[in-house]
């Protein structure tokens, strides 16, 4: 069996003495898209930030390609792991200048400016994410969807092995949601990019994921990990979200689709 790309064992996450999650164990194969789901406040973003060490783990381990993430040199981590946050900063620079920031981890010790090859790579990923026409636009003058696409382009320009995304499609219309997730899936299919993302939309999680990690707010640990078909079920949604839903196959993909029961007036008590 192929060793996992990411191996998380007994991980506890939190802030100081506050434990948000405990005994988190799962693995991620290279080239998979793994989506973390769960109710508000269950620790999805905390877990995502703990994986690369942005938040120190309270216990357990995270290994990437057999190496303890905490013992990896910072420059190697910076080149290997890219992260796209839910809300991108609105800073005073052009879209191209922002995307080029993704090349900084690859600069040599005495390199202060990007090379032509860096600019070519940035422009190719701006074209890939359909924002090349915004190259000279100020970042703070484009829409939130376009800014999120710029964040994806910046992450891909970094040429990472692992892409972490925190709710990359939140507050976006269906067009931008599809653009972002289709671009990410293309990179996974073409180049074996490994992706771990947080997602609130269960239908998007179902459609784009190879594996889904469902967190339980009450027990502060993993409720279920597996394929969308085994995780996104009516019983699991009822147990964790305390809401009754209808789960039926998407007629196009066959993946589980989640539908709210409009005749249900109240959520189910835990």
TrEMBL record:
Keywords annotated in UniProt: ATP-binding, Hydrolase, Nucleotide-binding, Translocase, Transport
TM spans (from-to): none
Domain named ABC transporter: residues: 6-242
Molecular-function GO term, any one: ATP hydrolysis activity
InterPro entries named among the record's database cross-references: AAA+_ATPase (IPR003593), ABC_transporter-like_ATP-bd (IPR003439), ABC_transporter-like_CS (IPR017871), P-loop_NTPase (IPR027417)
Keyword Glycoprotein: no
A Pfam family the protein falls into: ABC_tran
Top-tier EC class: hydrolase
Keyword Translocase in annotation: yes
E.C. code: 3.6.3.34
Role summary: Part of the ABC transporter complex HmuTUV involved in hemin import. Responsible for energy coupling to the transport system.
Stored PANTHER family: HEMIN IMPORT ATP-BINDING PROTEIN HMUV
The protein's name in its UniProt record: Iron(3+)-hydroxamate import ATP-binding protein FhuC
Source organism of this protein record: Desulfotignum phosphitoxidans DSM 13687
Gene name in the database record: fhuC
């Amino acid at each position: 069996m192929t060793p996992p790309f990411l191996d998380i064992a007994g991980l506890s996450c939190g802030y100081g003495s506050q434990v948000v999650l405990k005994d988190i164990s799962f693995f991620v194969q290279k080239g998979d898209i793994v989506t973390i789901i769960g109710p508000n406040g269950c620790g999805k973003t905390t877990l995502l930030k703990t994986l690369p060490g942005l938040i120190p783990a309270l216990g357990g381990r995270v290994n990437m390609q057999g190496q303890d993430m905490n013992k990896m040199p910072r420059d190697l981590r910076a080149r290997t792991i890219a992260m796209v946050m839910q809300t991108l900063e609105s800073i005073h620079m052009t879209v191209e200048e922002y995307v080029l920031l993704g090349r900084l981890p690859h600069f040599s010790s005495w390199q202060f400016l990007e090379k032509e090859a860096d600019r070519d790579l940035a422009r190719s990923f701006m074209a890939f994410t359909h924002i090349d026409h915004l190259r000279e636009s100020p970042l703070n003058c484009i829409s939130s969807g376009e800014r999120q696409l710029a964040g994806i382009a910046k992450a891909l320009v970094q040429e990472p092995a692992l892409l972490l995304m925190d709710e990359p499609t939140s507050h976006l219309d269906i067009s931008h949601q599809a653009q972002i997730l289709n671009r990410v899936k293309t990179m996974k299919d073409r180049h074996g990019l490994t992706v771990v993302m947080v997602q609130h939309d269960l239908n998007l999680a179902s459609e784009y994921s190879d594996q889904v990690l469902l967190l339980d707010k009450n027990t502060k640990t993993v409720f279920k990990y597996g394929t969308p078909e085994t995780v996104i079920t009516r019983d699991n949604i009822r147990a964790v979200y305390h809401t009754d839903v209808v789960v039926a196959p998407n007629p196009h993909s066959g993946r589980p689709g989640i539908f709210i029961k409009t005749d249900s007036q109240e959520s189910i008590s835990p």
